[in-house]
Amino acid sequence: MDGRAELELRHLRCLIAIVEYGSFTDAAIELGVSQASVSRTLLALEQALGTRLLHRTSRTVTPTTAGVQVLARARRVLAEAEALVREAAVGHTRLRLGHAWSALGRHTAEFQRRWHDLHPDVELHLIRHNTPTGGLAEGRCDLAVVRGAIDTRHYAHALVGHERRCIALAADDPWARRRSVPLAEVRERTVVVDRRTGTTTVELWPEGARPVVEHTHDVDDWLASIATGRCVGVTPQATATQYRRVGIVYRPLRDAPPVPVRLVWHREDPHPATDAAVALARGLW
Fold first, then answer.
1. Please, which residues bridge with residue 259 across strands?
2. Cα–Cα distance between 212 and 198 in angstroms, integer?
3. CA angle 14-16-21, nearest 5°?
């Protein structure tokens, strides 16, 4: 140890108060402490940083060159600390539901309406994040809708329903005139796949009877590729609900296994509203 005092938020508040109010006396009044306490706190801050922060005369208090730099950083640090406190305070009064593509599909709007009616004290936010966990791993949400593989070592999950698969086609594609398309026939086409967050892989077809695959990076690129007519896409019904686009049509895909839809959350730190969200989603399916 070098004998320096540890830096604390109260040290930064003291420095800011002295500069903003122009004197130790007025800073003490603002902080609700004695003038001697203000002097000791400033001294502790200067010792912790190893530099003088203020020029003091009988009439004025002005920051040194180092003081100007520390003052700017102190304001940012305190703002971040206050934001952290606010975030913690509202954490359980807000539920962030992440998803990569299609949220809860055709049930999304009804889920939002019922949540508002049943849990008016917990504000629901839907967050789209183009990662396999819909933003859960990145800390963007408290709970996520996932239709792909799950890392059960780190995440708990609950199955809330299944969705049938459909095929996405350009509106002028000859197959667009069909009422449905067999899965086996899709091997004749080029299938566009989002291997990061999509639900389709070549394993959907038997080995030796698999289509040519092209890869995209998100749903917008996926739709753009299909609209050209060169490719088709295989996707859960939720995509057809959420992404109705001019130039794209969706048709049921026969003989294809359904897609499981799960809600996923951090195993060690579930949001208090997790069980309520699972129950509501299951009730809608």
1. 163
2. 16
3. 95
Segment (H or E) for 260: strand 259-266
In DSSP terms, which residues pair with 165 in a beta bridge? 236
Distance (Å) of CA 46 to CA 15, 235, 254: 10, 62, 73
Tokens 């930064």 belong to: 12
- Looking at residue 276, its amino acid is A
Instruction: Give pTM, 2 decimals.
Output: 0.67
Structure tokens at 257: 């296994």
CB 200 within 8 A of CB 233: yes
Q: In the chain, what are the domains?
A: 9-90 (1.10.10.10), 91-162+260-284 (3.40.190.10), 165-257 (3.40.190.10)
Triad 129, 197, 165: Cα angle to 5°:
120
Query: pLDDT, tens digit, for every residue of 242-275?
Result: 888 899 999 999 999 999 999 999 988 889 899 9
Query: Do 129 and 141 form a contact (C-beta atoms < 8 A)?
Result: yes
Query: Side chain identity at 270, as an amino acid letter?
Result: P
For the chain, the 3-state helix, strand and coil shares in percent, each to the nearest 5, are 40, 25, 35
